[in-house]
Structure formats: C-alpha cells, structure tokens
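Internal tracking record. Fields below are filled automatically when a chain is submitted to the structure queue. Please do not edit lines marked as system-generated. If the sequence contains nonstandard residues, flag them in the REMARKS field before resubmitting.
Queue: standard
Priority: normal
Entity type: single polypeptide chain
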Amino acid sequence: MITSLHVRSFTAFSEATLDFGKHLNIFVGENASGKTHLLKLAYSVLAASWEEGRQSNATDPAGSRLAGRLGDKLVNVFRAERLGHLTRQSNPPERCEVRMAFTNVAWDISFSFSRDQRIGVAVAALPTSFVDAAPIYLPTRELLTLYPGFVSLYAGRYLEFEETWYDTCILLGLPLKKGVEEQRVRALLAPLEKAMGGAIELDKTGRFYFHGATGRLEMPLVAEGLRKLGMLARLIATGALLDKGCLFWDEPEANLNPSILREVARSIVELSLGGIQIFIATHSLFLLREIEMMLEDGKSGIDARFFSLRRSDDGVLVQQGPSPADMGEIAVLREELKQSDRFLGLGG
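SYSTEM-GENERATED OUTPUT FOLLOWS
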C-alpha cells in the first residue's frame, strides 16, 4: 500500500507531502483544489507499474521502459496535450517532482519532468519490482451503460475519454470470482444488492443488466445512482476489489440518495478492513459524517487519514490528520452547515 506521496510544482500544488492511512484516506476541498489530481497521480503511478509488470518480457523494472509508460499513463489519465502541462504554472517554470513510498519499499519511485516535456519522465529512483494488484479508479460517471463495445473501440482509435474509463471497463468485464473466496464475495455483496434491490449481470452479448423485483432491465433504464453502486458490486463480484490493491473513488456521492450513500459508506469501511486501501475525493458532509460515525462505532482498528485542500496564492495547501477535526474549517462543508442553521432558523 502507499504510505506517502510528495509533490513539488505539480498542477495547482507548489509543494506538499501527504502521509496516508493504511485503510482509508478522504480528501475534502472546494472545486479546483486538486483533490482529483492527487487521486489520478497516485493511480497513474500504480497503473503504469501494474501494466508494465504484465508484459510478457517483464522482469525487473527497466528505467527507460517504465519512464515511457508512466509518462504515457499520466498524459492519458489526465488527458493533457503534453506531459509538461501537468507542472504548476510559475515564473520561472519549475520542474515537477514526485516521490511515492510504499510499505513494500521495492515499489518506491521518484521521478520528475519539465514544463516543456512532451512525453516520458526522468526516473530518479527506480522501483525494483512491480506492484502486485491492478488499481481501480471509479470516476464520477457510471460506466455500465458505456461498457458495450467501449474497450475495443478505445483500444482501436483515439477517443477524448480519460484512460481511467478504459481501465475500469476492462476490470468490469472480468469473470466472476469462484472458489474459496466466494463466501467473502457474497458477504460483501449482500448489503450492496439489498440497497440496490437486485443484482448486476453481464450477459454473453457484452451488456450489463439489472435483475430486480420488477424483472430484468437493461442498464440505461436503471437509475444512475444504482448504476454507480452496481459498478462497485461488479468489481467485488469479479474479485478485483477483495483483499489487496487500491481503490480511488471520485465523488461517490454523485447521484446517490442518502439511504444508498449510507450503504456506500459501510461498503467503503468493510472493503478497507478487508485489505483494500481506499482514496476518496468528496464534497459530501453526509458521507464524511457517516464514515466518521462508523469509525467511532466499533471500527477503531481502521487507520484513516483526512485531508483538507485549500487554494492560496502560493498553491494548494494541505491540512491532514487521523480525524475530520484535524482538517480545520472547510469552506464547502461550512456552507452546508450554514444552510442547516438558516433552515432551522426559519422554523424558530
């Protein structure tokens, strides 16, 4: 798992060091504060290592080969015109530097790139082995309706979609998990399928369907919030989310009502206890409070970190700690609290 991430002159960040929790990491901040950028950066490093390790000629990481793949991955995940556009705009231009450390020090990596760089990173410290599980990135948009034919179409031509969509669709299409781990899969799926009121199925035509109380429905006819929950359920059913690896989830609350969001919070906590290191970017006070209550209600074994991101004239500032109280006052959450006070005032 990832233990820390240090960035210098990366997008909106002048310099920041983030120390991660073993189980759960939550990022909160206003729009354009860099939450998604941090998730995509960490995801890109893991995905590049995983993909390189899957090559038939892969042994130990080779500097030039991994540098090229990592540069390509960053460009494709961020959909930047060139790698150098991910550096912070400054005068004079500064070189972007990234260091990522893991519990398995053989995966540690340090690299950099300049403002005028198109492709490829300069690797300062090379890992000595590849990561052992594919990372998972859940975007704000659900992908089950997009899935039919998307993988082959994306692989065959240039499309203006983030590569996270392609990567996640590949994982959604994996076969269901069988064998000794089926019991754990069923235990994790049960509350999700109860919240959805049904189950997700991938049929032989390459389309996803929802089986619920009203019968079998094609995915476009299912509420978008349930489709998002269905992605999580499918990734658990295939074993992609089971006992190791990292999950990056951008705004899980989008298009989910509070009752379903409670089940999402519960699933997040259970997955983290099972060995998945989770990174979440959110604006939701409701989700944050649900997770906080679960951590205080018999889940003391979870190692969690909370991060607040604030824009400043010197780049985004990061405040972090093991509880939401360590984040200080957060503007986006403060406005929700103010609205609650205004509403209660009307009743007074």
